[in-house]
């Protein structure tokens, strides 16, 4: 691990990190560069840029000044050394896994041969449904295999690693149950196995936790969520924390350490260094070939969102904590999962690694059958029934029917998603208005609105 002190996600960095003046007009707000292509002054310059011997913007699929600013800013907030921003969180995960665990990483010459099987990923079984779809279906089609393991059993991760394993993947705060893995423990296991640990930090944002400081090698965001915070644009980012070194085991990472024709018969680690090689492969190969590029407009939306990250997250967390506490005293609720609750299995990790809070996604298990669940969800008015998180607006989702509807029965069981599971993304409205909405929905679905009486009864039963 580098001993360098890594930067904090400070309020100043949220507003200023990564700025470099590229205009004589001195705008205070960085301009949005809406240009598909960039002009060269000579054919010589164009040739050098296209051959990737000189850095330059060529065509906005692989980068633009506005997107580059977002990359620098998120890299700094996440205490990383660089980043690539793409069209969505899903694209960020897909391209990162292809670069690390794709077929070309398994053959000595760093090229994809059809007769050589692709790599293997060890991933948390308590994960966003889209990531499960990606690994179970589309990446499986590309030959990448996956083992789903319990994020709370570090030894299971060590046991799942095979000689083909090239990545471990976990969420800093799990979706939908807001459970917290022991990131330093998983990082130690990954380091021993010499496999990079990828942490999806979407639900936390760097304001609540910086996984790079806990041992993560790559940090991924769906910037659609808390980084943007306004629910207007989709975006994704992958950050290199600067701790993964392909040259420690060059034979294991030929896609970075072998000379390939694609990159001028020079190994990527020679051209871009240990900590530029992975990002360069993601950008210059996978983003270039598949094309899930981030629009400058969307990058601007996210940059604007990041300026208020700390202020927003504080409100999100306090609202979620208040609602968790009240819901846990309601007779209609069998169980509330949020690490802020006393007695929650993740409370100790929350205290150790998340001093500012554990975010605003929480889940409940409703006490009642499917019709009660349906009526409760349909009765909410302030909470939008929508598959998003991190918006200013509060949202409710039924994971079994929505975000996690394609999971196999085994993965759904491992993820503890039932028909009674209801997920909330608590927004930034007045918390009393949110509580009133929940109370009227409980009443409308057959539960008395007098939860105070219920909580009194529960407390009396305890003494
Ligand atoms: C939403 C989400 C994603 C996917 O991001 P998109 O921007 O929707 O593609 C990935 N991981 C987590 C934890 C998410 O919540």
TrEMBL record:
GO biological process entries: cysteine biosynthetic process from serine; L-homocysteine biosynthetic process; transsulfuration
Broad enzyme group: lyase
Signal sequence range: none
EC number(s) stated in the UniProt entry for this protein: 4.4.1.2
UniProt keyword annotations, A-Z: Pyridoxal phosphate, Transferase
Similarity-based family: Belongs to the trans-sulfuration enzymes family.
PANTHER family recorded: HOMOCYSTEINE/CYSTEINE SYNTHASE (PTHR43797), HOMOCYSTEINE_CYSTEINE SYNTHASE (PTHR43797:SF2)
Name the record gives this protein: homocysteine desulfhydrase
């Amino acid at each position: 691990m580098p001993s360098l002190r890594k930067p904090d996600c400070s309020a100043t960095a949220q507003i200023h990190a990564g700025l470099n003046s590229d205009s004589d007009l001195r705008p205070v707000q960085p301009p949005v560069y809406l240009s598909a292509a960039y002009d060269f002054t000579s054919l010589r310059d164009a040739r050098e840029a296209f051959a990737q011997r000189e850095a330059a913007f060529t065509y906005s699929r692989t980068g633009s000044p506005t997107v580059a600013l977002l990359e620098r800013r998120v890299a700094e907030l996440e205490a990383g050394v660089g980043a690539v921003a793409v069209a969505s969180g899903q694209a960020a995960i897909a391209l990162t896994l292809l670069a690390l665990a794709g077929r070309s990483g398994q053959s000595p010459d760093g090229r994809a041969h059809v007769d050589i099987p692709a790599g293997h990923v060890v991933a948390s079984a308590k994960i966003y449904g889209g990531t499960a779809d990606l690994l179970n279906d589309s990446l499986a089609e590309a030959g990448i295999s996956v083992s789903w393991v319990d994020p709370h059993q570090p030894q299971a991760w060590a046991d799942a690693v095979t000689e083909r394993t090239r990545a471990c993947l976990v969420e800093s705060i799990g979706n939908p149950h807001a459970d917290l893995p022991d990131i330093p423990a998983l990082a130690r296991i990954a380091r021993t196995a010499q496999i990079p640990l990828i942490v999806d930090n979407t639900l936390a944002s760097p304001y609540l936790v910086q996984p790079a400081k806990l041992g993560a090698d790559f940090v991924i965001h769906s910037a659609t969520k808390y980084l943007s915070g306004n629910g207007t644009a989709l975006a994704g980012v992958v950050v290199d924390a600067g701790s993964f070194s392909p040259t420690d085991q060059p034979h294991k990472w030929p896609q970075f350490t072998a000379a390939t024709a694609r990159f001028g018969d020079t190994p990527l680690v020679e051209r871009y260094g240990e900590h530029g090689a992975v990002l360069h492969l993601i950008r210059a190969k996978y983003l270039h070939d598949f094309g899930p590029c981030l629009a400058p407009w969307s990058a601007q939306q996210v940059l604007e969102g990041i300026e208020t990250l700390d202020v927003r997250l504080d409100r999100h967390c306090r609202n979620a904590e208040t609602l968790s506490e009240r819901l846990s005293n309601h007779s209609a609720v069998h169980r509330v999962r949020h690490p802020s609750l006393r007695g929650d299995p993740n409370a100790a990790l929350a205290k150790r690694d998340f001093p500012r809070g554990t975010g605003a996604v929480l889940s409940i298990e409703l006490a009642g059958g499917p019709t009660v669940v349906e009526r409760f969800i349909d009765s909410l008015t302030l909470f939008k029934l929508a598959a998003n998180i991190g918006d200013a607006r509060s949202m409710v989702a039924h994971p079994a029917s929505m975000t996690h509807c394609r999971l196999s029965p085994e993965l759904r069981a491992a993820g503890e998603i039932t028909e009674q599971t209801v997920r909330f993304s608590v927004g930034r409205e007045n918390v009393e208005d949110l509580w009133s909405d929940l109370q009227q929905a409980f009443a409308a679905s057959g539960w008395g609105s007098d939860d105070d009486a219920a909580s009194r009864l529960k407390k009396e039963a305890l003494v």
